[in-house]
Design a protein that fits this description.
Elements (H helix, E strand, L loop, with lengths): L3 E5 L29 H27 L2 E3 L1 H5 L5 E5 L6 H10 L4 E5 L10 H6 L2 E3 L4 H16 L3 E4 L21 H6 L3 E9 L7 E10 L6 H20 L8 E5 L17
Helix pairs in contact: 1-3
Length: 270
Amino acid sequence: MKEKTVYYTDLLNDEFSGVGERREITVDENYPFSPENIFYKAFKWLLYRIIMRPVAALYAKIKFRQKIVGREKLKSQKGGYYLYGNHTQIPGDGFMPNVMTFPRDTYFIVNRDNVAARGTRTIMTALGALPIPSTRDGLRTFRAVIDQKIAEGSAVVIYPEAHIWPYATLIRPFSNVSFRYPAESGAPVYCFVNTYRRSKWHQPRIVTYIDGPFYSDEATKKARQNDLHRKVLEAMNRRANVPENHAFVHYEPTPGDRGDVRRNLNGEEM
């Protein structure tokens, strides 16, 4: 893979996935986050268990020769959990967590545009996509569905960086907003970091580190939210900063523009 440099102006909001704008959709309390229809359940089982999971394993193995360090931590977890990761691959970020969490069902909290393409909503839902609602009532339904998935023993994957930066070796600052879910429920939190290695075939190899579980015994929900955010951010930075993590794509601030540094780790202007 040929190395290159990409310039950014905003660590929090720049997007380099190459995916263009998608149509706006409404996700409210009537959105089918978890259909109970028997035909849908049969379709989901076939698509998710028989097709997608083997494809995900082959993709990770053939394209990246992925090595997972610490997977036993997830396998030994009895109940459901939250799994946070760095956002650096299309379509890998939708595939590879399923390899880490096997055999449990895995769901992804995603932006609404991930289910906006016409004719794909049922497929994306069957593959575990849980789009963030656009209405207050939708948020209540959404939260109830997430709690249900955790109670069922599933993994809920969150990419707190929100935007995809392909092959990025830095952990971008991210908000503590998504940590309100485990802060309220007390469910365990894990994180993973995909790091990149040189290879003799000149193609990146992925080594994935898994850390956790993380809990917080702070007295208030806000304090627990901040505590979990800090613990995960520190663990992810520690893993990303290993010297072997090779930058096939170098992300640099736009020359003369330092607007990206005027924010703290919660995304607030300083």
